């Protein structure tokens, strides 16, 4: 009888989750119950560790997987044109997580998944037209985190990027590490990425030997490319090249073919994704009359890199290594 009374007293003293249920703290012991982060220049406070995160696109989703946070995810939205996901380091993460939509993330996806955090970006799920924004989610009582590569930079409503791309990657890993209580894992990833990149940089072309590189994403009438705030800027730089469009204070944007012809790149990097294959993009570049005298086209110096390595993601170091190896062969041939 006495044992039953003690058990009843303990049950009454427990929290409202019910007697017999396991009660987990909102954050690991020793970690504050709320965390305040700087995201896109704003101080944002999160009251607890999110348990049903919804992400948009491959790079953002794989940042979560790289930190071992797939168990904290309710699902992701991603077109199915981003390459074969069965042969990536985070294959298990994809297998454990629900593919919510093969289109852009919507409010309906978020609500159906009962999300308690949306991790997306401007141009990566968040849209200026108001379809899905941090503000619209806030009205629904759902917190959000914005990919730093995509932060609006104030020059124009659609211009994006507030820091060097790899700094953006490291900032997001550090912030996510704090938010989810996995700082040691985040620090280890950042240190490993820096080590991999330093190894490429040590053997990369330098000074006048650095080839100019144009990033071609898509577009026939006008090419979609990368300014200095998108991941290709530092992928190209650390690999030993010079981004042809470094002077553009934007991340991903459209330019005119005349500027490409005038600047005469030594190398063109094709972003491999979408309905048009990398080989089809290469064939277009080689056959497009205005480009016939461009050095990269004349010498057929065109290389493709996966989309997932060219947006902010844990695949950036591998993309740097691959491009670095290619640029060393270009240097040897010039």
UniProtKB/TrEMBL annotation:
The keyword Acetylation does not apply. Residues 52-334 form the Fe/B12 periplasmic-binding domain. Pfam families: Peripla_BP_2. The keyword Signal applies. Keywords: Signal. InterPro entries: ABC_Transporter_SBP, ABC_transptr_periplasmic_BD. Residues 1-21 form the signal peptide. Transmembrane segments: none annotated. It comes from the Bacteria. Belongs to the bacterial solute-binding protein 8 family. This is ABC transporter substrate-binding protein.
